[in-house]
Amino acid sequence: MTAKLVKPRFRLRLTWLVLGLMLALILAACGDNTNTAVPATTATATTAAPVATTVASTTLAATTAAATTVAPGTTAATTAAATTAAVTTAPATTAAPTTAPVTTVAAPATKIKVLATTTQLGDFARNIGGDRVEVTQILRPDDDPHDYDPTADDSKNAAAAQLVLKNGVGLDDWLDKIITNSGTKAPLIDTSEGIKLRAGDGSDEEKEGDPHIWHSTDNAKIMVANIAKGLAQVDPAGSDYYQAQLTAYQKQLDDLKTQITQVFTPVPVEKRKLVTNHDAFGYFTDEFQITIVGSVIPSFSDAAQPTPQEINELIKNIKDNNVKVIFTETTINPKIAEQVAQTAGVQIYSNLYGDALGPAGSDGDTYLKMELSNAKNMAAGFQQQ
Ligand SMILES: [Zn+2]
Asked: How far, in Å, is the centroid of ligand 1 from the Cα of 26?
């Protein structure tokens, strides 16, 4: 059978035609073709090429009625053509060998499937889970977590997940919809558990507090500990492994804090005045003695638009505090920030990693790199003030 697959298409069609006609005649003579549709459903479940092609030949034999069942076993695209052109759908069926290698990827099935909402949680999970886990993260680099519309793929991933991780504090409440739609029963870890929250801005989204918890390295240590606990819960055999990974990563977080402290050391505290696109850095500023002067979007959420009065107030604050730099963020359109900077006569520093990691290869493609990059960027800007 395999040898036939590599022959020219017309030869294959002819073969199918002859086979089909012969079998059709035999089955017509028997007067029974009801069983032929059954194997087609088994073909959907398996990726083994020989099975798929066998199904094709039996369904071909089942005259016109069964011909339409060929398509679901292979690709939906061939459905329409299947009614009379059963022979022409057969070569499409033989495309199954391209999917055959998928069965060889059965090994990762032993890994723990983790679904994480944000890019930073995905990074944390990969660091703590190491080679025992397979992490799928919902948001892509530079995606805005405040404003996300779940997709059908998200539900599929949630249904397959053995552990689900969320940021919490209202940031990724859109996960609720994914969980409902998927029907997943996987344990859900709220990584914000145990973190002392800064006050929110009173809006619906921020009623629990400021959701940008990861920008404190101390908070990050709690978040990864929550992840390690969740992993040990669903994979007890890996408990010691996760504990070792946690200890090693928490050490890196301590080192990061030391590095960031060193980055800011040459910058006098009175120069550490921050104006950003939105209020994402409260936990960071608390940790490194930075004062927030204002933000272009005066909210923890970046969905809001500043009013003209708010912009005027910000410009006044910038001048009063002798701020010389406005920092933009990767996930937010810099247009308004640029207008404010122009009006206030200050510079734009781009870009801080506020709500998401950067793409692979950028200086923000891991949590550790992202925070250090932010610190260096801020320190350079503060020196202008
Ligand atoms: Zn934000």
From this structure: 68
Q: At what angle do helices 335-344 and 308-320 cross, to 10 degrees?
A: 50
How many angstroms separate the alpha carbon of residue 163 from the centre of ligand 1?
A: 25
107-260 against 267-382: fold identical:
yes
Rounded to the nearest angstrom, the distance between the alpha carbon of 344 and the centre of ligand 1 is 24
Question: Could you say which architecture CATH assigns to the domain 107-260?
Answer: 3-Layer(aba) Sandwich (3.40)
Q: What percent of the chain has pLDDT over 70?
A: 71
- CA 200 to centroid of ligand 1, rounded, Å: 12
Coil, strand or helix: which one is 198? coil
Peptide bond preceding 351 in cis form (omega within 30 of 0): yes
Domains of the chain, by residue range, sit at 2-101, 107-260, 267-382
Confidence of residue 22 (pLDDT cuts 50, 70, 90): low
How far, in Å, from the CA of 333 to the mean position of ligand 1? 13
Report the predicted TM-score, pTM, of the whole model to 2 decimal places.
0.72
In the reported structure, the alpha carbon of residue 280 is separated from the centroid of ligand 1 by a whole-number distance in angstroms of 5
Eight-class DSSP state of 195: -
pLDDT band at 130 (very low <50, low <70, confident <90, very high): very high
| Beta-ladder partners of 294 | 275
Angle at the Cα of 33 from the Cα atoms of 31 and 39, rounded to 5 degrees:
160
What spacing in Å lies between the alpha carbon of 225 and ligand 1's midpoint? Answer: 23
pLDDT for the residue numbered 35: 37
Ligand 1 centroid–CA 348 distance in Å is: 19
Which pLDDT does position 283 carry in this prediction? Answer: 98
Give distance in angstroms: CA of 184 to centre of ligand 1: 27
Q: Compute the mean pLDDT over every residue in the chain, rounded to the nearest whole number.
A: 79
Between 189 and 103, the more confident residue is 189
> 267-382 has which fold?
Rossmann fold (3.40.50)
